[in-house]
Structures are given as structure tokens and as C-alpha cells.
């Protein structure tokens, strides 16, 4: 019997948000769709002791080979999306609606003299308006119960309507004012049809006008001291607002759109697309792509995705009954040539296609849902690659082979530098052991001597300081000197703090040292290692532009495949070092580091620096000030103002 633990998500990776989940078999067929208020709590229940599960649930989890989930905003969205995907995939283990011809809808029989509101399943009929579908019939009845306070339309069958007309007394709903009782002539056919049309208009989405009208009438009743009427209208407004809880996965009638969202970092991007047809989410697709130099930002990613995704549909798209190119494509940002791209899509479809960014309402809410799913997919992608033991082992083996190392680089250290146009230089050193970040070993540096020589000199200074500490912390102590000699070839770890018994900060050398940069940075680091006599540490550099790996004394870079797990590990180390350096730089800047740009100005002491910052409020505003503005401050002359402006020129940005 297959073990569900083989595909169980890693602990803590399942979100606690509401959503819909899908179990798939080894062939990728969806075998079960479910919804949950908390995805984490519900999915964890499937991976409990198999013996304690219901027999059918046990069969399902042992048949499945993969589980996916989609995050939504509310339980209502999860309910609706569950319905859509059960109809879409027809999963074998979903049996609740297996015998139904269709899911229930709210039908309004506009083809009758006295239209009726009722729950309906079956084929569509001419002259009847349908709202839904709903996942449960009780959801329709709850909606009706709320709305009949405001729209007292007929809900009874033809037989009941005829019988009460014959006896001349309305049913119970007529007595409690949830039916206008057209059966006994309380309202005319036209008046009753008007009530039903208002009801249909409300469910179609035109809700604001109705709410505003009721609020106006409530206010008027209150001013006329008709407090019972005002209280009833207040309750009616509350009923409408409860019924107005709109679903982001269900849009207005006839909506035909694709909603696209991205989640990205400097190297990769996750793309999610929801296909909305007939106002319902009919499908969801997602990819993770490598970002190239030609697609650096979201508008460029949008252009690339739209052209590639819809380009294959150029032949005969207009003649297909289910056109793969929708009337609307909703994207997070418009590309620079959005108009030309829109015209191209229009030509492919054979009718107008709108490419736009949703700004408000249900479409904006759905776009936010798609964005949440893109972020979730991107997080899962990174966790899978980082947390997969097989992938980590493959990455270390690839690096050993590609870089010609004697052993797998079980400990990797990476150095990155951050500065403001050559000033206020800081650096970071991050550590990866067995392919995983070891944050307790991270270190950060304030670069002093190397600041004047740019990144190359800064890298050299950090490498020198790091390995000087390594050498000093591995000097033998008295206890080490009297210890017995180790076997030939064995490594001795002398960097243990005798007081705490723990390793010192820089006691362990890496198997591989990675610097952020190309050949100049690598050569600078190699010179420092040679100067210190360190020969057992491998060295390489990773250049951002083309992701080339540079080795010392090698005129040509090593090119690793873009899908290489080894390259991915180097990229993760480089990106983590960059993040750590930037974070440290911003922390120092927030504590007044930028004010040190004024330290070297002649005649400008601490009091005057403080006066400048207090007057202008920020360094950004101070840099925008001219000589006259600064010279006009008490205690400042023109010469001092000119010196300040000269010192601040060109110092913006990172």
C-alpha cells in the first residue's frame, strides 16, 4: 500500500487560509477536490494514522501521489471554487453530487404571469433566468430567506398558488410579509413582476442603487418619527448587505477573461492564470520560469507571457466554439506597447480584446486572489528545491564536478558588498551547510580600508579579515599543544572556545568560498588567500548578468545549465548574501549613517549637521536644497552652504 508520507507537504508550508485542495494520482488525474476553512488543519488530517481514517478516505490518500491547493479570500469563494472544479475534473472520490444532473441554481420564471423564485436542477429553459450555481441547495434557501424581506416575491409551486387563490387566504409567508401574496390579489401582476425584476437586478450585481434607496427611506422614516418603519428598513438593509457578500471567484454574467499574476525574484518568476468563462473560474494554470536579461520587470514579463501563451492560438481562434483568447486579459501592469499588443490579440481572436489592469470591484478582488496563488506557488517552488534532499545532494555533486573539487562543498560561504555609490560600504558573509542556509553563522562587516578601491578592494578586505580570524582562532591552545598527535591526513579542529566549549565565530573554513562578481573579484580574493597561505579553500565567483561562474586564473567562465541544481544553489547563496548585506546597510542608514556624508565638510560640526537635518526633515530634502536655501539658515554662510551642496552632489541611491 503506498504511503501518503511520500508526498506529504513539509511541516509549516501549508497555509492556514481558506482554500480548495486537489489530490492527484501518479498520472496527474485529479481524484478528489475539497475545500477547507483552514487548509493546514484539513490537509494535516489526511496524513494522520492511516488506520484511523475512513475506509474511503484511506483508499483515496493511498491512491494519490500529489496534493495541491489554491488559496482564496473567504469560505464562500472556497465553496464556489470547489463546485467549479468538481464539475471541471469529475474526480472519482467526490461522490456527494455524483447522481445530480447539475448543481442547484436559483431560477426566476420570468415566462410566467406571476414569476416564481425557486431552487432548480436540470437543463436550462427559455424564459427563465438563472443565478448561481451554488454548491448547496441550502445556500440558495438562506439567500432567499434574507432577500424575501426586501423582495417579497412568490416562491410557491403552481398547485399551492392555485389552491390559496381558490380559498382566498395567503400562505404563512404572506402573513409574515415574506410574500406579497399575488395569489389573493394583494398586488397586481405588474406590481409583482416589478418586485421580481428588482430581485433579479440585485442578484445581477446592481446592488448599490437598492441599498442607497433603502437608506434614504430609512432616514426619511426616522425624520418623520416613524421609528417602527425605520427599524424594519434598517433590518432590510442588513439583510441585503449579508446577501451581498460577493464571491471573487464568481463574476457577473457573461464575463470572459483571463486573470494573470506574477510572483518573482531576481532569477525566477511564478506565473498564475485563472480562466474565467461565463462568469466562473473554469480553470487555473501555473508555471515557474527563469528570468532572462530581456525580462527584468513585470511589464516585460507580461509582454513575454501574453505573446508566448496566446501565440499558438493564432490559427482559427475566431472559429473555435470555445475561443482560447478571451475578451479581457487582466494583468498586474501594462507593457510599454500595450496598444500594439492589444491589436495583435484582437486580430488573433477575430473580435476586440481588452488588455488592462483591474482597478476596483470583483475583478480587482479576483486579481488579488490570483496574485496570492502566484506567491504561494513561488514559495512552494523554492521550498521544494531547497528542501529536497535529493536535489541538494545533486547540487553539491554538480558543483564538485563542474568546479573540479576534491570533495563535495558541504560548507559554502558567500560574500557580497553593499554601498551608496562607493561610500558607507558594508559587506555580508552567509553560510550554507549541506545546501541549507545556516543563519546562526552569518556575519556582517563594516568595510573601511577597501572602500576607496571599489568592490574589488572591498571583497579583498572582507576575505582578509575573515580568514585572519580563521587562522587566529585555530592557533593551538595550551591544552592543544599537549594533546597527542593526530593521524596523518586527519583535520584538527582547534577553534573551540575553552570557556564555553562551543566553536569560535570563524573557526571553520568553508569548502567553497563564493564571491559576488566576476573575474576581478575572484582574483582579488585568490590573492588574499595565497597571501595568508590558505590552500584548502576552493574559490569561485558568480557574475549576475549572465550567471557565469568564474574560477581563479581561468580566462573563461564555467557555464552551468540554467536548470542546474548546482547553479541554483550558488544563486540562492548569492541572493541571500545580497539580502543580508542590503538589510544591514539599511539598518545602519536608518540610524543616521547617511548623515556621515556631511562629516568631511569644513566648518560643519555636529550642531550644524543636526540643525540641517532638523530644518529640512530628511537627507532627501537636504540634497534637493540649493546654496541660497542653506545659506539662509542661522549660523550658515554662503561658503559653508556651497561646501554642503558640493559634498551631497551625486550621493543619492544605492
Q: What are the salient characteristics of this protein?
A:
single chain; 654 residues; alpha+beta; GIY-YIG endonuclease; Nucleotidyltransferase, domain 5; 5 domains; 7-stranded mixed sheet; 16% strand; excinuclease ABC activity; DNA repair
What is the fold's blueprint, element by element?
Layout: E1 19-24, E2 30-36, H1 39-46, H2 55-63, E3 66-71, H3 75-89, E4 105-108, E5 117-120, E6 129-131, H4 137-147, H5 158-167, H6 172-175, H7 189-203, H8 208-223, H9 227-243, E7 257-264, E8 268-277, E9 280-290, H10 298-311, E10 328-330, H11 338-349, E11 354-356, H12 361-387, H13 389-403, E12 411-420, E13 423-433, E14 436-437, E15 443-446, H14 454-473, H15 478-481, E16 512-516, H16 519-532, E17 538-543, E18 548-550, H17 565-590, H18 606-616, H19 619-624, H20 627-631, H21 638-648
Parallel strand pairs: 7-10, 10-11, 12-16, 16-17
Antiparallel strand pairs: 1-2, 1-3, 4-5, 4-6, 7-8, 8-9, 12-13, 13-14, 13-15, 17-18
Subunit structure: Interacts with UvrB in an incision complex.
Keywords: Cytoplasm, DNA damage, DNA excision, DNA repair, Excision nuclease, SOS response
Domain UvrC family homology region profile: 259-529
Instruction: State the secondary-structure class.
Output: alpha+beta
Looking at the structure, the CATH topology of the largest domain is Nucleotidyltransferase, domain 5
| Name of the CATH architecture of the largest domain | 2-Layer Sandwich
Number of domains: 5
Please give the largest β-sheet: 7 strands, mixed
Write down how many β-strands occur, each being a DSSP E stretch of 2 or more residues: 18
Tell me the span between the first and last alpha carbons. Answer: 57 Å
- Report helical residue fraction: 40-55%
The CATH superfamily of the largest domain is: UvrC, RNAse H endonuclease domain
Regions with little confidence, pLDDT below 50 for 5+ residues: 96-102, 314-322, 478-493
The gyration radius over C-alpha positions equals 34 Å
CATH class of the largest domain: Alpha Beta
Amino acid at each position: 500500500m503506498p504511503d501518503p508520507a511520500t508526498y506529504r507537504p513539509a511541516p509549516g508550508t501549508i497555509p492556514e487560509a481558506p482554500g480548495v485542495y486537489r489530490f492527484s494520482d501518479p498520472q496527474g488525474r485529479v481524484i478528489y477536490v475539497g475545500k477547507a476553512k483552514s487548509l493546514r488543519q484539513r490537509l494535516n488530517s489526511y496524513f494522520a494514522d492511516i488506520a484511523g481514517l475512513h475506509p474511503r478516505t484511506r483508499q483515496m490518500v493511498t491512491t494519490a501521489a500529489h496534493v495541491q491547493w489554491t488559496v482564496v479570500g473567504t469560505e464562500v469563494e472556497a465553496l464556489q471554487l470547489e463546485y467549479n472544479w468538481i464539475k471541471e475534473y469529475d474526480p472519482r472520490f467526490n461522490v456527494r453530487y455524483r447522481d445530480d444532473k447539475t448543481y442547484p441554481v436559483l431560477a426566476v420564471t420570468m415566462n410566467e404571469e406571476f414569476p416564481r423564485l425557486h431552487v432548480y436542477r436540470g437543463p436550462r429553459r427559455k424564459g427563465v433566468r438563472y443565478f448561481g450555481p451554488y454548491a448547496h441547495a441550502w445556500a440558495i434557501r438562506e439567500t432567499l430567506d434574507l432577500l424575501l424581506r426586501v423582495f417579497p416575491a412568490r416562491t410557491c409551486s403552481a398547485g399551492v398558488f392555485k389552491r390559496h387563490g381558490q380559498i382566498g387566504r395567503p400562505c404563512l409567508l404572506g402573513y409574515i410579509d415574506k410574500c406579497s401574496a399575488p395569489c389573493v390579489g394583494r398586488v397586481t401582476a405588474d406590481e409583482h413582476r416589478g418586485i421580481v425584476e428588482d430581485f433579479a437586478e440585485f442578484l445581477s450585481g446592481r446592488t448599490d442603487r437598492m441599498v442607497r434607496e433603502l437608506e434614504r427611506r430609512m432616514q426619511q422614516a426616522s425624520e418623520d418619527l416613524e421609528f417602527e418603519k425605520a427599524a424594519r428598513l434598517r433590518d432590510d438593509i442588513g439583510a441585503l448587505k449579508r446577501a451581498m457578500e460577493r464571491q471573487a471567484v464568481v463574476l457577473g454574467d457573461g464575463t470572459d477573461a483571463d486573470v494573470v499574476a506574477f510572483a518573482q525574484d531576481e532569477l525566477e518568476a511564478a506565473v498564475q492564470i485563472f480562466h474565467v468563462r461565463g462568469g466562473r473560474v473554469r480553470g487555473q494554470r501555473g508555471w515557474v520560469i527563469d528570468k532572462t536579461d530581456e525580462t527584468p520587470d513585470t511589464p516585460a514579463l507580461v509582454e513575454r507571457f501574453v505573446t508566448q501563451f496566446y501565440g499558438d492560438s493564432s490559427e482559427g481562434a475566431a472559429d473555435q466554439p470555445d475561443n482560447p483568447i478571451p475578451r479581457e486579459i487582466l494583468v498586474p501592469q501594462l507593457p510599454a506597447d500595450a496598444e500594439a499588443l492589444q491589436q495583435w490579440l484582437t486580430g488573433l481572436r477575430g473580435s476586440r480584446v481588452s488588455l488592462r489592469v483591474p482597478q476596483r470591484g470583483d475583478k480587482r478582488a479576483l486579481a488579488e486572489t490570483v496574485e496570492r496563488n502566484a506567491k504561494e506557488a513561488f514559495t512552494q517552488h523554492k521550498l521544494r528545491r531547497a528542501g529536497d534532499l535529493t536535489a541538494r545532494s545533486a547540487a553539491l555533486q554538480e558543483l564538485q564536478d563542474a568546479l573540479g573539487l576534491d570533495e563535495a562543498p558541504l560548507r559554502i560561504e558567500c560574500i557580497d558588498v553593499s554601498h551608496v555609490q562607493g561610500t558607507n560600504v558594508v559587506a555580508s558573509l552567509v553560510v550554507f551547510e549541506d545546501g541549507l542556509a545556516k543563519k546562526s553563522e552569518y556575519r556582517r562587516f563594516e568595510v573601511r580600508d577597501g572602500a576607496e578601491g571599489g568592490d574589488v578592494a572591498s571583497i579583498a578586505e572582507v576575505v582578509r579579515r575573515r580568514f585572519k580570524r580563521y587562522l587566529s582562532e585555530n592557533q593551538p591552545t595550551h591544552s592543544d599543544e599537549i594533546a597527542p598527535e593526530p593521524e596523518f591526513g586527519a583535520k584538527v579542529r582547534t577553534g573551540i572556545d575553552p570557556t564555553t566549549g562551543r566553536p569560535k565565530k570563524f573557526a571553520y573554513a568553508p569548502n567553497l568560498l563564493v564571491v559576488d562578481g566576476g573575474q576581478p573579484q575572484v582574483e582579488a580574493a585568490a590573492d588574499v588567500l595565497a597571501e595568508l597561505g590558505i590552500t584548502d579553500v576552493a574559490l569561485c565567483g558568480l557574475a549576475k548578468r549572465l550567471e557565469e561562474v568564474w574560477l581563479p586564473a581561468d580566462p573563461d567562465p564555467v557555464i552551468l545549465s540554467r536548470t542546474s541544481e548546482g547553479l541554483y544553489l550558488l544563486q540562492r547563496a548569492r541572493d541571500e548574501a545580497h539580502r543580508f548585506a542590503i538589510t544591514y546597510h539599511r539598518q545602519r542608514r536608518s540610524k543616521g549613517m547617511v548623515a556621515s556624508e556631511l562629516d568631511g565638510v569644513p566648518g560643519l560640526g555636529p550642531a550644524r549637521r543636526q540643525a540641517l537635518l532638523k530644518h529640512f526633515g530628511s537627507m532627501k530634502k537636504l540634497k534637493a536644497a540649493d546654496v541660497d536655501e542653506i545659506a539662509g539658515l542661522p549660523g550658515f554662510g554662503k561658503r559653508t552652504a556651497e561646501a554642503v551642496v558640493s559634498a551631497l552632489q551625486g550621493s543619492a541611491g544605492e
